[in-house]
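Cross-posting from the chemistry board since nobody answered there.

I work mostly on the small-molecule side, so proteins are not my area. We synthesized zinc ion and want a rough idea of how it might sit in this target. Sequence and SMILES are below. Is it possible to get a predicted 3D structure of the two together?
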Amino acid sequence: MTRMLTDLPQPAALAALTEDSIVVQPVGALEQHGPHLPLNTDLVIPEQIGALAVDRAVSDGVDAWLLPAIAASKSDEHHWAPGTVWLEASTIWNMLVDIGRSVAATPARTLVFLNGHGGNSALLQVVNREIRRRFGLRTFSMGTGTQRAGGGADGGPDEFGMGIHAGHSETSVMLALRPDLVDMSGAVRSVPEHIAQFETIGFNGHPVSFGWTSDDFGPGGVIGDPTAATSEYGDELVNAGTAFVAKALTEISRFRHAS
Ligand SMILES: [Zn+2]
């Protein structure tokens, strides 16, 4: 049976949802991913991991449902690259709040944002609370669990912990999911090694963040080293991401704010 909620007629969708239902909203992005990956990389990944993970969670007894992925989101760090389709923070904020309002009108009481683009993470954490406060939904946000920062220890190239955009892990995942869209002849290493000397300042996981745009680190817009990417490693990451998201949905199904 389909778990895409919008495949159902409205009365059937309403009848399918209960207070235990979890509605999963994948959030994609349309943005430059260097010369070797498609603009829709951050849309393909949460769409496919979402479908796989929801199916697995359902087989584990979780009443999870998918909404169609949001394609464009807050990709302003790639604004310099035409082809990127990006929304102002206020635009995506209003869209997500409106989706929360719509889900809250159904019997479902839980909304999960499955995020395919790191540039949305901070905004999603804030919107979680907004939707909770205004509409009473339990709200969660998570990534797809497929992104690795690349320290060289996993057998891949050393990306100095900064393989965050079109690098080894993301390129490998796309070789696993959509090899027809990948052109490895365009893959070029671009790692901002000068940033590795800073202990406090850096990308996700560092205590001090900075307002970067993706052309700060080289003209190609890649932040990482895609040159050694393989579909085998991509399969590993897809399996790990699917297991992570399915496990998270299982925990979310049991989670309550108060005992
Ligand atoms: Zn990406």
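Reply from a structural biologist on the board:
Welcome over. Reading the output above for you: The helical segments are 10-16, 41-59, 89-104, 121-135, 168-177, 231-254. The domain at 5-254 is CATH 3.40.50.10310 (Rossmann fold). Happy to explain the token format if needed.
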